[in-house]
């Protein structure tokens, strides 16, 4: 499995090897960039969880939100250019049709709540890999490509059900019943 600790180890290994070549000033700059990246992550997450509390804590949540949206728009534009550069049909209007649903599905499979707040970039990457595995499997088995939407809809439904408070409460009741049940000894067996 991929987790944030392996990402941190990879970053630390790269930083350790880079330190051998760099001067002290360059080492300090690299450490500051690494720390700023972690701080930015925390700021974005705090604004996503509760923008008003972040604003009251001194974070310029409105400016940060606008910056995040601008960076996302820039990256979406680059992705659009890359996607349309591979267009081989005459109908450019359908390029990327329903691709936004794949993005939402990848984020939700990765563990991000639909209500907002906490997120995981590693989880989103795993979610994208799950979607691509699903699509590739459907194509390999020989199912028509239009049917992939049905499989994706089933995954969305399952994820939404698993994230719902009702399902969480039902699982909690089931676990309590299972744990409180005592198994009576069978007659004629030694205990």
Describe the fold and architecture.
The chain is an all-alpha fold and 191 residues long. It is 72% helix and 0% strand. Helix 5 crosses helix 6 and helix 5 packs parallel to helix 7. The protein is flat, with a radius of gyration of 24 Å. The mean pLDDT is 75.
Largest sheet: none
Mean pLDDT over the full residue set: 75
Overall form: flat
Count the helices. How many? 8
Indicate the percent of residues in helices: over 70%
Structural class: mainly alpha
In total, the number of strands is: 0
Series of H and E elements:
HHHHHHHH
Strand content: under 5%
| Rg from alpha-carbon coordinates | 24 Å
Distance from first to last alpha carbon: 42 Å
Low-pLDDT stretches: none
Write a concise keyword list for the protein shown above.
191 residues; mainly alpha
Topology:
Elements: H1 4-19, H2 24-49, H3 51-56, H4 61-85, H5 99-109, H6 121-141, H7 148-163, H8 165-180
Helix pairs in contact: 5-6, 5-7
Short description:
The protein has 191 residues and is mostly helical. The protein has 8 helices and no strands.
